[in-house]
Specification:
mainly alpha, Fic-like fold, Arc Repressor Mutant, subunit A, 2 domains, three-stranded antiparallel sheet, two-stranded antiparallel ribbon, globular
């Protein structure tokens, strides 16, 4: 924290408290970022990176509109984001685990879903709620508080402060180390933190930054400020990365949430955190904005290619069923939705497609006979089936 003493975009203040883990008092310096600027000068390299990211977002959006129901490919992107953003915070699961858990009617049959998968599912629920909200409403602190409560529900940090700005001090660093060894100390709780968060929201939604700062730069700057404020006791990273997607949707750079930026960041986790810290040290926005623009550009480009492959697979699956079983309408419907629901059960198919369990069972048997589905796992009752070819793509 000493390296932040001369930061041009923030101040350090001394704070003191008691660390119950070690039974000792502490006195450290916390960092209070200045409000975000409404204008920023950037070099040509940053403009090139932002322009490429914007172009790649446009191609991604166009690809998503090629399918009658873009929510099918949006569902895949949200689940990929859930895996990546959770991994950045130390919660690991894989896509088959997540899709399998979501086939259960209440997402919790007898508590059989492991805690790590349940926590990842918290994110998907929060994201889906957020996408519904911003369809006709702006991003607000109330929305973010509600999303944070959903993200930490049932986890060790779920408690009295869930769903509200923190009233306790938090520290960024290894959990087993002393406060004095923290990598970063965010602002202390209280009226000042709330005021800084409210000004951040005003900047996020206000006309002046939108008029003078390109979207990708604003995404990066808003993300930096949110992580630096660290307004909640937990879930700040996942929530901050979700806000970036919400900004993109709110400003119509994408019409559906088909971007997953966290997988790229998770592969470069140390560099990601170093860039955030470097902004506080130097006040130089360009390296961080270029890094974030590369994340958006790369994930938008690979997302475009993934969507095109999924659309091709959807057409192939549908044609295979129509050719072999022209009258198997339910089998066609299930086959064409495998790109979004690549693991399913008979009961799961019934919930989504209607008709009788027997009709759905017969349809799934058609898909198994055609090699589009295979048994998944060992359960004999309400057996799961999956499409390995879809997982090869996603």
């Amino acid at each position: 924290m000493k390296s932040l003493a001369n930061s041009p975009i923030g101040d350090v203040v001394s704070i003191a408290g008691h660390d119950a883990r070690f039974g000792e008092d502490y006195e450290v310096e916390a960092f209070l970022p200045h409000d975000l600027p409404t204008k920023v000068d950037l070099p040509g390299s940053a403009w090139m990176a932002m322009s490429q990211a914007a172009a790649d977002l446009g191609r991604l959006d166009a690809a998503a509109q090629l399918i009658p129901n873009p929510q099918l490919v949006a569902r895949v992107a949200t689940r990929r984001e859930a895996i990546g953003t959770s991994a950045l915070e130390g919660t690991f699961a894989d896509l088959p685990e997540l899709f399998a858990a979501e086939t259960q009617p209440d997402h919790d049959v007898g508590g059989q879903i492991p805690p790590n998968v349940r926590e990842v599912m918290n994110y998907t629920r929060a994201a889906d709620s957020a996408f519904d909200w911003i369809a006709d409403r702006p991003i607000t602190l109330g929305l973010l508080s509600s999303l944070q409560a959903q993200i930490v529900r049932g986890t060790p940090t779920d408690g009295p402060e869930a769903g509200s700005l923190r009233t306790t001090q938090v520290f960024i660093g290894a959990k087993h180390k002393r406060v004095a060894e923290a990598r970063f100390v965010p602002p202390p709780p209280g009226d000042s933190l709330r005021a800084m968060c409210e000004r951040w929201i005003s900047w996020l939604t206000g006309p002046e930054p939108q008029r003078h700062i390109q979207l990708v730069a604003r995404l990066a700057m808003a993300h930096y400020q949110f992580e630096t404020l660290h307004p909640f006791t937990d879930g700040n990273g996942r929530l901050g990365r979700l806000v970036a997607v919400l900004q993109i949707l709110r400003e119509d750079a994408l019409r559906s949430p088909v971007l997953a930026v966290s997988p790229w960041l998770e592969e470069r986790a140390d560099e990601y955190r170093d860039h955030l810290f470097a902004v506080s040290q130097s006040g130089d926005w360009a390296p961080w904005i270029e890094f974030f623009a590369e994340a958006i550009s790369t994930e938008a480009s690979t997302g475009h290619d993934r969507i095109m492959r999924l659309l091709s697979l959807r057409e192939e699956f549908g044609d295979a069923v129509r050719t072999a079983r022209p009258r198997a309408r339910i089998a066609v419907d299930i086959a064409e939705q495998l790109i979004a629901y690549p693991i399913l059960t008979v009961a799961d198919a019934h919930r989504r497609h209607g008709r009788s369990n027997q009709a759905n069972r017969d349809a799934i048997k058609v898909l198994v006979d055609l090699g589009l589905l295979e048994p998944y796992g060992e359960d004999r009752y309400d057996r799961m089936y999956w499409s390995p070819r879809v997982f090869q793509v996603i």
